[in-house]
Amino acid sequence: MADPAALFDLSGRVACVTGASSGLGRRAAVALAAAGAQVVGVARRDDALAALEAETGGASVVADVADRARIADLAAAISAPFGAPDILVHAAGVNTRQAADDVTPDGWDVTLALNLSAPFFLSQALVPDMREKGWGRIVNFASLQTTRAFPGGIAYGASKAGIAQLTRAMAEAWSRHGITANAIGPGFFPTELTEAVFRDPERAARNAAQTCMGRNGRLEDLDGPLLFLCSDASSYVTGQVLMVDGGFTAK
Asked: 43 pairs with which residues across the strands?
């Protein structure tokens, strides 16, 4: 039997996390570094990335992952500090919260470009090195809105529903080469994207009451599921969406 601790050990692995400057992306970067990975954080805020570097001992790249014209340059910059990544976590995202009648073309395009297109095109650029090594882990970020419709969430929900199918399609395309593709679907966690929710105690309490566990997420609740999907512990798991939502979607 394999050593259980070794299954989750990421020593010698290189991980890239997009959206690493804050929220769940930052938490993912810290958790991967704690498990032994050399982490490259990608985001647009250089000051926040500098603080992350200091905490993790990793590296960072200031970039807009939704800029398709610069994907090749971005992939090269990500690979420069430690070599091509073995693990790719797509945590960058945006939610414009426009009601269906108020959705603008720009709002729609920005949402789909960052939440759905960027994970595919950056993965496409980095998969060849994973394929050559015969090992890779891609983790996308899904959402409660992957399967549920929320007010003001039509563009965001469409992008996150797309993530579920993108994850399955990535698995079909690349898993035969040792590259797994899975997604985490967080419930309500305290991040910049959900700041408005947690600023309203009554709304936060209603969301907590909709879970099976009776509470909203804590950042540490993400660590175990993420390390599972990024390590040898999940070597025969691919094409799946793991909901980390306290049972919100079970009710």
From this structure: 62
